[in-house]
Amino acid sequence: RIMRPDDANIAGNVHGGTILKMIEEAGAIISTRHCNSQAGEPCVAALARVERTDFLSPMCIGEVANVSAEITYTSRHSVEVQVNVMSENILTGAKKLTNKATLWYVPLSLKNVNKVLEVPPIQYTRKEQEDEGKKRYEEQKLDRLETKQRNGDVIFPIINPEPHTVGYSQSSLIHLVGPSDCTLLGFVHGGVTMKLMDEVAGIVAARHCKTNIVTASVDAINFHEKIKKGCVITISGRMTFTSNKSMEIEVFVDADPFLDEPRERYRAVSAFFTYVSLSKEGKPLPVPQLLTETEDEKRRFEEGKGRYLQTKAKRQAQMQQAAQQ
Amino acid sequence: RIMRPDDANIAGNVHGGTILKMIEEAGAIISTRHCNSQAGEPCVAALARVERTDFLSPMCIGEVANVSAEITYTSRHSVEVQVNVMSENILTGAKKLTNKATLWYVPLSLKNVNKVLEVPPIQYTRKEQEDEGKKRYEEQKLDRLETKQRNGDVIFPIINPEPHTVGYSQSSLIHLVGPSDCTLLGFVHGGVTMKLMDEVAGIVAARHCKTNIVTASVDAINFHEKIKKGCVITISGRMTFTSNKSMEIEVFVDADPFLDEPRERYRAVSAFFTYVSLSKEGKPLPVPQLLTETEDEKRRFEEGKGRYLQTKAKRQAQMQQAAQQ
Amino acid sequence: RIMRPDDANIAGNVHGGTILKMIEEAGAIISTRHCNSQAGEPCVAALARVERTDFLSPMCIGEVANVSAEITYTSRHSVEVQVNVMSENILTGAKKLTNKATLWYVPLSLKNVNKVLEVPPIQYTRKEQEDEGKKRYEEQKLDRLETKQRNGDVIFPIINPEPHTVGYSQSSLIHLVGPSDCTLLGFVHGGVTMKLMDEVAGIVAARHCKTNIVTASVDAINFHEKIKKGCVITISGRMTFTSNKSMEIEVFVDADPFLDEPRERYRAVSAFFTYVSLSKEGKPLPVPQLLTETEDEKRRFEEGKGRYLQTKAKRQAQMQQAAQQ
């Protein structure tokens, strides 16, 4: 579809959240279709996890987004989908790869939402494809267990914060979950959640550096807990780390099912977003360093640095590998 | 994309206007891409005309709309696009053809919006394709000249109208044209206009028969006049004819460019929409007959009857032809 | 237009904010059109004030909202518009008056946004209309001066609040102002701001009483300060008062023009919203009493009680007057 002013910031760059929402919708369609392809209980594929995603080049208003999705692996209860997004300038015909994303879906029964159904297996053209898929499946399973830990944190507001401290840019928004946000099962689409997360993370980044910012990457996101129609969700973001030219923002989503008496507010999702600041010519600008004050902030900064260096090393290894091939 | 509650009426049937908007967007993308495929002035394809469109089967919330578009003819200054919409129930895998539409686009220069550019010719696989396209091109050109006449009419509100008279159901809405309604040239997308027209026509039909109604067809629409960002548009609809099971509604779009001093309010588009009333099981219901009062209403009713009989005859001829093949 | 699922809460009642937004759009169109009706500088009418508005009956999904607007008074630099909203059930034909609102607009030059232009005078059919209009004009002018004071307050979050305290239900959201939120001048539509304010107030009310709530009335709102495209706005709400069957919520809008270096965050709007809790049959329910803890909270509760009793007295006086006529 054609990107509109509403999909973009005032510099004309399409929000990363809009792209994530399109990716998730494509993934949900292909995996729901696949999981219903054999006779059996009807089901809806629910997003369980999105792997780390890089935004390779910014998309602009007036360009057309081409989204293509393919099922690349199936385990007994989950489906791996690869989604590619190309931006196309229909005036010049130029096409650019914007995103390559990997998503994991789980089929939930339409009759009983707590029942996970079996996934019809796909055919692999080569045996290695199945083995590599299995390896990715095991890796993400491990990783999902790990992130279950980091759930207690809450963001408290700071009064009269100094510029470039954590408290200076931290932001949160609330949203009442309406019918258009939800799947047939009455739970929030993963893509809607990611769009709101990107919105908050983008405001944190813009408040910190006061320039035009764009999403550079999103770390793996696990959707441990479903969010029901009628909930109030609070999406909070705080900056955790800055390198010379990037900012890392941690985003939490807390759901408050206030209409269901016994249920308490709970952490539904959390993730790290990385942003860069762009000049008018689209070149990356240096960003102001984050000033850490408390012990927790210093610890989180070091952890963020670890993630940053690890990603950098991985990317260099990939580039060397690509150069050798 | 997946159909959401907002795309549909309270019975869960997707609005014809939502489908028309998707069709027009697909047509605008493919024809803008084609018109820029050769080196030359960059341009945007503007919708000039939509041929009569039948809604073959209703689409529902939760279904996926698959839209495919193909360029089928090019004249020197215009492009004919055929768009097919399939509705897919991803739970059962069932697919149905919802619409087949034919649209005509004209390339306007990005630098000078009043300049119509030349269209790169397409290759035809068979000579007959070109000849048939040329015939369609000549026919629509003739038809476009005719409709230029019917522009003076205005809809006046009636106080305390009797049930089932024209005044009883006539309706109008105003809309301020915002940035998301517009193309890169700053003019309203044809699809946005058609969606608003369907909204008004649907209100007229529902007021008349007070049941669940769906769009059955839209007569050819000519886009004679562009509508600029910042205009206020008034969309008015009145019922012109009823058969046993269908209602014909005439819709006008008037644009008021109140910020541009010299320009007066003008008629931008007009069209006939046909609606049917559906029972809970999706079967067509009889509709109350329209009560005509004035001479003009009686004349319009007869004209509507003419269109109705002509369409019916055409459809029967097509069915006979199909049966013979 | 027809009310859609997205316009309403999960019980099917249309959000008061959606109605306020339609009212403001109608007012902006009629007053911009009027102010441009004489030769001169083109201008856009900006909302300066909305008088107290009562929501007389709830509107539901599937109903049609009929909005009519009329200019009732003009001073040298401002226009008074009366807007009526009727809800129409198109299945039964039943119509109900939902709202009567009075709005004040000021024409700002399209070339120089800080220049207020002159308003062409309207013709009155009776001399008393002009005198009464002038009286309303003077009254609102006075009232606008008063509210300029109440601007310093900030809402701080409370950790682990007790149920039914002020801290328990207070809420805030941030919103990045995009192009679709803005007029041609690049400033946020008053109606967009009111819709966001109603969204926050509704979440505060729902958190407090955990039932289906609807907007009952909105106190006069003054738009002292414009909000520019690209700003981040924070909308915060806290409960100030509860009667047996109603809740009063104070809402603040703070704008942070973070891209414009010299400009600081400022209070753009504030207002009081009153909500009632409805049973499934649409009858008003008793609401839990607000527990006030601090001195400020107790003072605000007393002030809210004052407003409540004043409004009640005024309404009774009007009903007696109506009974005598």
Automatic annotation (TrEMBL), chains A, B, C:
Xref: CDD domains: BFIT_BACH
Any single GO BP term: fatty acid catabolic process
Sequence ranges of Low complexity compositional bias: 316-325
Coiled coil: none
Active site, renumbered: N9, D198
A molecular function GO annotation: carboxylic ester hydrolase activity
Compositional bias (Basic and acidic residues): 296-306
GO cellular component annotations of the record: cytosol
Cellular localisation: Cytoplasm
Keyword Cytoplasm: yes
Residues of the HotDog ACOT-type domain: 1-111, 167-281
Protein EC: 3.1.2.2
Region described as Disordered: spans on this chain: 294-325
Cited InterPro entries: Cytosol_ACT, HOTDOG_ACOT, HotDog_dom_sf, Thioestr_dom
Pfam families reported in the protein's UniProt record: 4HBT (PF03061)
Keyword hit for Zinc: no
UniProtKB keywords: Cytoplasm, Hydrolase, Lipid metabolism, Repeat, Serine esterase
PANTHER family: ACYL COENZYME A THIOESTER HYDROLASE, CYTOSOLIC ACYL COENZYME A THIOESTER HYDROLASE
Protein name, entry field: palmitoyl-CoA hydrolase
Species the sequence originates in: Sapayoa aenigma (broad-billed sapayoa)
